[in-house]
Amino acid sequence: MQRGTRHLLWAAPVLVAGVLTACSGSPAEAESERTGPLATYFESFYGGDLSEAEQQAKFEEQNKRTEELVAQCMSEQGFEYEPNTGNSSVSFASDSEWDPDSRDWVSQYGYGMVESPGMEEAEQEPVEENADPNADYVASLTESEQIAYSEALSGPTPSEEEMAAMEDGSYEWDWTKGGCYGEAQHETMGEDPLQSEEFEGLQEELTAFYEGQPSWPGMAEVDAAWSECMSQAGHSGFAAQADAQNSIIEELNGVWETMDPEGEVDQAALDAIGAKEVEVALADLDCREQTDYRSKVEDITFEQEQQFVDDHKAELDVVKAAAEQGN
Question: In this structure, which of 27, 99, 196, 214 has its CB flanked by the most CB atoms within 10 Å?
């Protein structure tokens, strides 16, 4: 694999436990890190309030139960299936590897898009794959039986429309179309509490709330100060802080969209974007520090989140109770 390449792969659904962490600030800011009013709720929704050991234990138990249900389901479909408890893993974010507010880190990785910690080592090291205990059985099936087995296990192959939706991020997973894995994961992990029809209105309001961030009281002034600083540093045209990183994302997307799927990545183009990324990210970091951007945005965000919590506390508490019951 060439350095910097990205691939979207479709495979049978597997359990993946993700840990969402907020971006850590500079060392001086890290000492005063706070948890926002809504973040406190989200942690309870998705288990972020558990320790790593507790999350690991929960994940392993869910995976074991899922595999048992898959085996039962596949048997009912007329196939053999041996539970594969080595088919997934859980990982936790490392603050020591990801430090986008450190000047040394930004000088090397920028925003961490073209290059990121561990990328080169990961691409050079062979991928260790756990042996699938069902491989020999699948190999013994006829071609038509293998297709039926795959569809029973993980559902039909995604359509072109579904693949396009995966690419642009609009795809919505439907467990009823995910074969035995879909059913098993739905049984063991339950639904995302915010995605159920019962809380559809709250989800829409949350989406609108965060989409409205640019118009929150005080944000325009904070962004204007940051934008003026960036212009003075030779990077004009960014009205809001997020625009800086998005400009690099757009250039990267241009490279991937024009690349032949079977061809080699345009490394020269990636290197040029990487150099620009570091330059823009360093200016961005300087301007955030000079304008006290993070602290001011955090204050504005917490104030707005608190107002949202005050206005929707009853609904949020119901979601929290449903999530805790599901756990």
Answer: 99
